[in-house]
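ugh ok so i messed up the first submission bc i forgot one of the chains. this is the corrected input, ALL of the components this time, i swear. 215 residues overall. if the numbers dont match what u have on ur side tell me asap before i send this to the collaborators (the ones from the other lab, u know who)
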Amino acid sequence: MNKKIIHNTQYFVRNELGDDSTGHDWHHIERVRKYALYIAKKEERGDFFIIEMAALLHDIPDEKLNPSKGAGEEKLSDFLATLEIHEEAKSKIKDIIYSISFKGGLNNKVLSREAEIVQDADRLDAIGALGIARAFAYGGKKGQAIYDPVIEVRDEMTEDEYRNGNSSSINHFYEKLLRLKDKFNTVTAKEIAEERHKFMEQYLQQFYKEWNGQA
Ligand code: ADP
Ligand code: NI
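and heres the new structure output, hopefully the right one now
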């Protein structure tokens, strides 16, 4: 039964996000699902079904990928309404999705065990080689500069500043990506994050070297 629900959900999400080019494509979802299940199994905690469902659906209501915030929320609600699972499971899945987003702040909300794991999985895909690729893909789509030394790195931002303020993809490393290292909830994700964090630091060193025209 659960297997069929997962299968249907996968089909739905694939159709919805298939050709997104901002870094929220189907492959991102598949990686988040894989990381989430890996962490859950390694740490032996959380409800695996809820975790897998939330990982699959986590970007469905994202405002960036919908005409409006309300439209995104409706899309998620409408889909959940078609599923034959307990109302309690539906509201758990929704709670996870709405509690894990970054949106300009590393807010220290209290998360459920399942939400902690899905958040870690989503954050793992925001760092490392893939995180770098996603940041430039997102930046390109938004029309922001790769780098511009004149644009200052922002510290705390409101959601609107994060989404619409002036930034560059390199600034995004300092505004989010490098700050994630200390924000993982699980030991398993922390360990994976270490290598990816170092890789981003090395990448930036090389970037500045080339930016300054050093041979
Ligand atoms: P979340 O969905 O967790 O709130 P975002 O939607 O902010 O995360 O980010 C989705 C992806 O796009 C991430 O990989 C993130 O690093 C990247 N991204 C978000 N904002 C920017 C930006 N201003 N410049 C470059 N990359 C960005
Ligand atoms: Ni995501």
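quick check: The chain has a mean pLDDT of 92. that seems consistent at least. The domain at 2-211 is CATH 1.10.3210.50 (Hypothetical protein af1432).
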